[in-house]
Amino acid sequence: MQRYDVVIVGSGLGGLLCAYILGKEGMNVCVLEKNKQFGGCLQTFTRDGCVFDTGVHYIGSLEPGQILHRYFSYFGLMDKLNIRKLDEDGFDHVCFGNDGSEYPLAMGYHHFIETLHRYFPDEKKALRTYVSRLKHLARSFPLNNLREGKSLLSEADFFKDNTRNFLQSITQNTRLQNILAGTGFLYGGVGEKSPLYVHALINNSFIESSWRTVDGSSQMARLLIGGITSMGGTVRNSAEVVKLVSNNEGITQAVLSDGEQIAASNFISNIHPSVTLKMLNTKFIRKAYSERIDSLENTASAFIIYVCLKKDTFPKLGYNVYYYNHENVWDAVAYNPTLWPESYVLLLPKIQ
Fold first, then answer.
1. Looking at the DSSP assignment, which residues form a beta bridge with residue 95?
2. Which residues pair with 246 in a beta bridge?
3. How far is residue 269's CA from residue 241's CA, in Å, rounded to a whole number?
4. Is the pTM value of this prediction over 0.70?
5. 163-170 vs 124-140: helix axis angle to the nearest 10?
6. Tens digits of per-residue pLDDT, 205-228?
7. Beta bridge partners of 46
8. Residue 55, exposed/middle/buried by CB under 10 A (0-12, 13-18, 19+)?
9. Which of 29, 71, 127, 308 lies in disulfide reach of 113, CB 3.0 to 4.6 Å?
10. What is the rounded radius of gyration, in angstroms, for the C-alpha atoms of the chain?
């Protein structure tokens, strides 16, 4: 029986990054992926010569000195990724069908403020407050600053505010509130439930700089796997874990769907918590804990249509479009089926 220091179940971005870090620290790591293709939300597919992303459509903070540039450099990605910058004057456009208006979200803090200020000349203070709060939360979040020592904020500070209440507190202009919340599709936004820090981490990243991978996000998975294997790690596809065997000391083996057993000193799950718990011997897990995990509400999903367009039939936009046929963007998760679609996001893989 093959034995490793660490077995990681699932080859999504988190699992691959974890394997890379542990491999770099000298551990013998094995990543087990049930699907044929690695990468989780990094997966892509091709139709009629067009490459489509399934989950990661654009990335923020990749300028030198910005946080993801630092992370990607550590993981050996930055000098190998084929990426292209989105439109600095508006990487995202938030549109409202009830009046045909369109509002660009620009890159760079000052540029972001000044661009929206042209549409809302009386809201300069609100825009400055919005950007200042996003920057503060993003830079206070431990994994987003890579500073030694304590976080600038307590854990409670990150959860005390929800996104909608914050936006209502800085401006009474409902249109501006909806524009600033207009990219909530990125995190399944629900106004009264979505913590402000989640909105801040995502939106701050894209305001710093926004990029699209050329020819798909699966290149990140390929590069990470190359790094893991070069350090002696193992990454296996078509290796579905169906059971995690444990004793009084902890988990000892992963059992695959074909009966193969893989032993390790440590196990890490990169799959849904409720699925992970179902693989375990329940006598070692408190029933109340399992029931709590199973009862957690999943975030909203989306119906996705992938389209291959004939050449020169549609402009190659350098931005994404968030469209709402109504004024309240928070209603996107509670639409009326007779009016569907009341909102959508347009993502174009290839840009000029």
1. 102, 323
2. 251
3. 10
4. yes
5. 140
6. 999 999 999 889 999 999 999 999
7. 51
8. middle
9. 127
10. 22
